[in-house]
Amino acid sequence: MPMIRISHSHHLSSTAMAMCSSFCPHIPNHFRGRPISSFPTKPPLFVSFKAFSSQTDSSAIKDEGLTRVGFLGLGIMGSPMAQNLIKAGCDVTVWNRTKSKCDPLISLGAKYEPSPAEVAASCDVTFAMLADPESAVDIACGKDGAAGGMSPGKGYVDVSTVDGTTCKLISEHIKATGALFLEAPVSGSKKPAEDGQLIFLTAGDRSLYEMVAPLLDIMGKSKFFLGDVGNGAAMKLVVNMIMGSMMASFSEGLLLSEKVGLDPNVLVEVISQGAISAPMFSTKGPSMAQSLYPTAFPLKHQQKDLRLALKLAESVSQPIPIAAATNELYKVAKSHGLSDQDFSAVIEALK
C-alpha cells in the first residue's frame, strides 16, 4: 500500500508497504500539505484517506493499546458509528441518556455503564457524539460526566458538532485529569455513518490522533488533522454553513422550476450532469419533489450549525450575508414544526 507525502514544493514520493495478512487490514495513506494559514505558527494540515474499502481489523487497534472503547450518545449518528466499531471487533462500552437506545448495541455485544464517568473509567478511549454544545459540555464536564472517569493514559474524542469555545472548555476539563483530548467533528450524515464513510475533522493532541487513527478508519473514509483545539469545530461549521446555503438555493430552484411548468425531477437530472453537480442534490432532490423528507440530518441541527457559524464569523468580523439569510429561512422552517425532519424540509418554508 503506497504512502504518499506532499511537501511544500508539492513533489510526490511513494513507498511500497507490504500487506500483513489475507484479511487485508487497512493501512492509511498520509498527506502533509501546506499549513491552513500562511502564518508559520500554525501546524501543517495532515490528511489521511482510505485507499480501498476494507475496514481496519482488530489487530491494528490492539497494536495501539486501544483494547477498550467507550461511546457516549447513540442518536442518528452515534449508533451506527458504535455499531461499526463493534462489528470490527472492538470491545465497546456504551451509554445514552435514554437507555433503550443502548439495547440494540448490547445485543451486538456491547457492554453498558450507567454514567459517562463509569464508561470513561472502564475504557482506554471514549468517543462522544452529542447533539449540541450544552449536551457536549454536560456529558463531559457535568455531574457524573466523562471527566470524572478520566486519568493519565486515557483519551477523550468528542465527535460532536460544537463551537470552538465549547471544544476548548471540554479540552481543559479532560486535560486537567492528565488524559488526552481530541476534537473530531464529522462531515457526513446517517448513511455515511452507517457505511463507515464519514470525514473526521480533528484537532488537539496529535499523539491521541495517531493512537485512534485505526478507530477513525473503521468509522470513516478520511481524516484531517488541523492543529489546535477549535480548528476542527471551525472547519465543520464552515462546511455546514456552505451545505445549508446550498440546500436553500436548491430549494428555491426546485420550486421555481415547478412554478414555471418544468419538471423538478428533470432539473435534478440536468444539475447532476453539469458543473454544479453535487451528491446532495441527486440524493435529496427526488424525495423533495414529492414533499418527503426522511431524516438523515435533522433540520434543527442544520439551523444550530448556521447559528454557530454566524457567531464564528462575528468573532473575526467576516460578513456572511448569504448564510445569515439562510439561517432566517431555517428558523422559519423550525417555526412550522419541521425541526425533526431532514434539513431538506427547509423547502417547506418557501412554499
TrEMBL record:
Q: Which key words tag this protein in UniProt?
A: NAD, NADP, Oxidoreductase, Stress response
Record's InterPro entries? 3-OH-isobutyrate_DH-rel_CS (IPR002204), 6-PGluconate_DH-like_C_sf (IPR008927), 6PGD_dom2 (IPR013328), 6PGDH_NADP-bd (IPR006115), HIBADH-like_NADP-bd (IPR029154), HIBADH-related_NP60_sf (IPR051265), NAD(P)-bd_dom_sf (IPR036291)
Q: Which Pfam families match?
A: NAD_binding_11 (PF14833), NAD_binding_2 (PF03446)
Q: 3-hydroxyisobutyrate dehydrogenase-like NAD-binding domain spans which residues?
A: 230-349
Catalytic activities = 4-hydroxybutanoate + NADP(+) = succinate semialdehyde + NADPH + H(+); glycolate + NADP(+) = glyoxylate + NADPH + H(+)
Q: Which residues form the 6-phosphogluconate dehydrogenase NADP-binding domain?
A: 68-226
- List the GO terms this entry assigns under cellular component, sorted alphabetically: chloroplast
| Domain of life assignment | Eukaryota
One annotated GO molecular function is: NAD binding
Its job: Catalyzes the NADPH-dependent reduction of glyoxylate to glycolate as well as succinic semialdehyde (SSA) to gamma-hydroxybutyrate in vitro. May function in redox homeostasis and play a role in oxidative stress tolerance by detoxifying glyoxylate and SSA generated in glycolate metabolism and GABA metabolism, respectively.
Tell me its family.
Belongs to the HIBADH-related family. NP60 subfamily.
Designated name of the protein: Glyoxylate/succinic semialdehyde reductase 2, chloroplastic
According to its UniProt entry, this protein's organism is Liquidambar formosana
The opening ranks of the lineage are: Eukaryota, Viridiplantae, Streptophyta, Embryophyta, Tracheophyta
